[in-house]
Amino acid sequence: MHIGILSRGPNLYSTRRLVEAGEEHGHEMHVIDYLRCYMNITSAQPQVIYQGESLNDFDALIPRISAKHTSYGTAVLRQFEMMKLFTINSSIAILRSRNKLRSLQILARKGVELPVTGYAHTTSDVSGLLKMVGGPPVVIKVLEGTQGNGVVLAETKKAAESVIGAFRGLDANILVQEFIKEAKGEDVRCVVVGEKVVAAIVRRAQDDDFRSNLHQGGTAERAKITPAERKTAVQAAKELGLAVAGVDLLRSSRGPVVLEVNSSPGLEGVERTTGKDVAGHVIGYIDKNINIGKKRAQRAKG
Question: Which domains does the chain have, with CATH numbers?
Fold first, then answer.
């Protein structure tokens, strides 16, 4: 098969590993910089053009779209979807996961356990907002932040009021969440591929931080997850429509709660920590589902 990877960085660990895994499975792998693509969006013959050539011979796509370029990246992906190309994560699923508020609302509607969360923009009723999520300490997030950026722990009411006031001055939308103190600065990253957790790590914050993101200097070790954590991770990915996802959980006194769902999880930390071939699982998912699609098409013709 010809498999395309929509990625801006051919030398990035995750992209390289997906290329290696695909070639090990006997596929031709192509890395496409989606920002250098342009599109013909006519209904008769939709096209994606890259380096002067039409990209019409792929069998499947692996989107690795950065948060910074979500809008254009998903537009390119949508164009491939118009061409009836198989993609492991759809454009709409990626957009759902990138919108923190929308993703939390979808998960809440489906009964997935979450931290108690408030959402605000210009409210002057800060006391009411804090009371709603259980009072300080609280975690305050800028809605557009990624990799632990734009996230502040406010330990007192005064500190929370100050942070909310500052974000309000930036005309920012904010999420205010309960602080799960029993998590002790740890979260669990579960990588889900095709409704199965294929690898999991525990990420720990630095001593002077509460954010466990590896980009923020956190450390990681292989995790042994519970059946409840496995079920929650799989359900969170499924409800957002993601076949491949990184689901971040906190271990609370009431069980696992979903912190965030990532549609393009980095592979380096989880593969090196666990020794698992996550990239191989992604390629295996494509192999299996492409074959299922072909068999269904043959049955329909028969």
Answer: 2-96 (3.40.50.20), 117-179 (3.30.1490.20), 182-281 (3.30.470.20)
